């Protein structure tokens, strides 16, 4: 497994803010940075102005983005794309239609490939020294199904963190508890739900995961060690 030496994930767009000087809005976007590899912009939120304003305050230069990874074609994940492309028109964009199956995008980063039926969605997998990091847009194919796909792709690997939208804002307590139990059985170590996950989802996951529950929102910065090549 080829990887780079360090990874940083910055939440740029979300329904809630972690840093009060940034703007919240319905949608999701995160910047994934690994040493010596192109920077990945995961989704672009719903509004280009909000995206770019938050990026400016976070001191993220759109010109230095290597490519955009679009989880699925809903407006709250693609709406900011025209604003980015206006600044960097030749920027490569990987939509879920770009891949027929799971594939390596670059050293240390893979797509699950498009999953689901009614809404085709891909998630991003990044390898770290602690285990796999799974980043989801809305988890329309089912958050548990996405984790299972990652474990199928990397048998024996630990899932260190699942981050992003879990699409559980309408889920009942019994459904949420079943998913939490599934996460435990799959060995998911930490979680950072955001966007469409829902308040009750956060409450129950936080109760179960305790210190391994990561509060998320615009401006949240996560750093990880990465396995050496």
Account of the 3D structure:
The structure is a single chain. The protein has 229 residues and is α/β, with parallel strands linked by helices. The chain has one domain (6-225): Ribonuclease Z/Hydroxyacylglutathione hydrolase-like (Metallo-beta-lactamase, Chain A, 4-Layer Sandwich). Helix content is 24%, strand content 27%. The chain has helices at 48-57, 75-78, 81-87, 143-153, 173-185, 199-209; strands at residues 6-13, 29-34, 39-42, 65-69, 92-94, 103-106, 109-111, 124-128, 131-136, 159-165, 190-194, 221-225. Strands 5-4-3-2-1-12 form a six-stranded mixed sheet. Strands 6-7-8-9-10-11 form a six-stranded mixed sheet. α5 links the parallel β10 (159-165) and β11. α1 (48-57) packs across α3 (81-87) and α5 packs across α6 (199-209). The radius of gyration is 16 Å and the shape is globular. The model has no long low-confidence stretch (mean pLDDT 94).
The share of residues in helices is 10-25%
Task: Name the overall outline.
Answer: globular
**Order of strands across the biggest sheet?**
5-4-3-2-1-12
SSE string: EEEHEHHEEEEEHEHEHE
Number of domains: 1
Radius of gyration: 16 Å
For the biggest sheet, the summary is: 6 strands, mixed
Here the CATH topology equals Metallo-beta-lactamase, Chain A
End-to-end Cα distance, whole Å, is 7 Å
Low confidence ranges: none
Number of strands: 12
What's the CATH architecture?
Answer: 4-Layer Sandwich
Mind telling me the CATH class?
Alpha Beta
CATH superfamily: Ribonuclease Z/Hydroxyacylglutathione hydrolase-like
Assembly state here? Answer: single chain
What number is the mean pLDDT?
94
Structure annotation, total helices:
6
Structural class computed from helices and strand pairing:
alpha/beta
Classify the beta-strand content into a percent band. 25-35%
């Amino acid at each position: 497994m080829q990887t780079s030496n360090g990874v940083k994930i910055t939440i740029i767009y979300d329904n809630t803010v972690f840093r009060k000087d940034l703007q919240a809005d319905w949608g999701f976007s995160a910047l994934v940075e690994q040493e010596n590899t192109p920077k990945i912009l995961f989704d672009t939120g719903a509004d280009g102005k909000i995206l770019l304003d938050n990026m400016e305050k976070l001191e993220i230069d759109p010109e230095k983005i290597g490519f955009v990874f679009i989880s699925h074609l809903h407006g709250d994940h693609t709406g900011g794309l025209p604003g980015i492309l206006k600044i960097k028109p030749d920027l490569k964009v990987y939509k879920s239609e770009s891949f027929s199956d799971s594939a390596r995008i670059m050293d240390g980063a893979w797509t699950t490939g498009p999953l689901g039926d009614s809404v085709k969605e891909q998630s991003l997998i990044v390898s770290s020294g602690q285990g796999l990091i799974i980043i989801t847009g809305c988890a329309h194919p089912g958050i548990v199904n996405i984790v299972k796909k990652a474990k199928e792709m990397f048998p024996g690997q630990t899932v260190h963190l699942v981050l992003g939208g879990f699409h559980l804002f309408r889920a009942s307590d019994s459904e949420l508890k079943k998913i939490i139990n599934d996460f435990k059985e799959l060995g998911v170590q930490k979680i950072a739900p955001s966007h469409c996950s829902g308040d009750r989802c956060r409450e129950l996951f936080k109760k179960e995961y305790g210190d391994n529950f990561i509060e998320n929102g615009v401006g949240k910065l996560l750093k990880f060690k990465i396995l050496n090549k």
